[in-house]
Design goal:
Length: 306
């Protein structure tokens, strides 16, 4: 259903049919062919409109902006921790293989060598004043300066290569106990960061399953089953990290307010985002920082067919 043909044509011209089609895909009726295989037909669920699909596109766009906001804080904080913990032992620690797990120094993929080669390229191509000054003065670049050239992927890979002792120091600063868990978190957050940076749809996209601690903070969030493959689980992890960086942050309130604006489009469900049927636990986050406002819980208001 299209309510305004001229506007629809304008938006299709601006955004592109293929890009927008990803936002009405879940509203296409699932049918079964003669062989018993299910497929998305070209017929839509009742009351589906182009305007709703475009509103969902805008909803996803703002959601990406909120994710980028938190990802920036997390990236800067964690790379600062890495630079401090490794750099206080050796200001040029990023060149010191004694901090690296031995298996990455001699594996067939040349993991550390490839990381180091990428690091050298980033330094050579950097236009940051601090890097240019060190190069011009022919001075060694200390760890806390070189991390300014890192992107999320470079940081994630470096942490994953560190030896167990160094990883233990880093996770302690984040209140965690599982070294591999942080590695998986960083990989997942890097995937989300790349999707956001390339303006890809994120509201109902899957990611590799992530593990969370068995503690009071995460247990109440009901991250179980396929929920840990959806955006809800990533938001919970990000909120844990953002709260640690800035205890007074209102980021989660912004996310909550934005969730309230999700278009009521057939096939566009909170379940597709991984949200448990009970919704975001208001009691755990508190009314002032919770995902939903008292008396305005979109997860409970959502219809069974949505």
């Amino acid at each position: 259903m299209v309510h305004d043909n001229s506007r629809a044509l304008r938006k299709l011209s601006q955004v592109g049919y293929y890009r927008l089609s990803g936002f009405w895909y879940t509203s296409r009726i699932i049918r079964t062919n003669d062989d018993g295989f299910s497929f998305r037909s070209d017929d839509f669920l009742p009351n589906t409109s182009f305007e709703q699909a475009y509103d969902l596109y805008l909803f996803d766009k703002k959601l990406r902006m909120l994710m980028i906001d938190a990802l920036e804080r997390i990236e800067i904080h964690i790379r600062s921790i890495i630079a401090h913990e490794v750099g206080r032992n050796d200001p040029l620690g990023y060149q010191n293989t004694s901090f690296i797990n031995q298996r990455y120094l001699s594996d067939r993929n040349n993991t550390y060598q490839r990381w180091q080669s990428k690091q050298s390229k980033k330094i050579a191509e950097s236009r940051d004043d601090c890097i240019i000054w060190h190069l011009r003065e022919q001075k060694e670049i200390p760890f806390w300066v070189v991390v300014e050239t890192w992107d999320f992927g470079q940081m994630s890979k470096y942490y994953s290569m560190l030896n167990g002792g160094m990883q233990a120091r880093i996770i302690k600063r984040l209140g965690l106990e599982n070294k591999q868990m942080l590695s998986k978190w960083l990989q997942c957050l890097n995937l989300l960061r790349n999707r956001c940076a390339h303006h890809s749809r994120i509201w109902n996209r899957k990611h590799p399953p992530i593990q969370v601690p068995n503690d009071d903070f995460f247990n109440v969030l009901q991250i179980q089953g396929d929920v840990n493959e959806r955006i809800y689980s990533v938001i919970c992890v990000m909120w844990y990290l953002v709260k640690m960086i800035g205890p007074s942050s209102k980021w989660i309130r912004q996310v909550a307010d934005h969730f309230d604006t999700k278009p009521d489009m057939p096939g566009c469900s909170y379940k597709s985002m991984g949200v448990p049927r009970t919704g975001f636990p208001r009691a755990r986050f508190g009314d002032s920082l919770g995902f939903v406002t008292a008396g305005n819980d979109p997860f409970h208001q959502e219809s069974e067919g949505a």
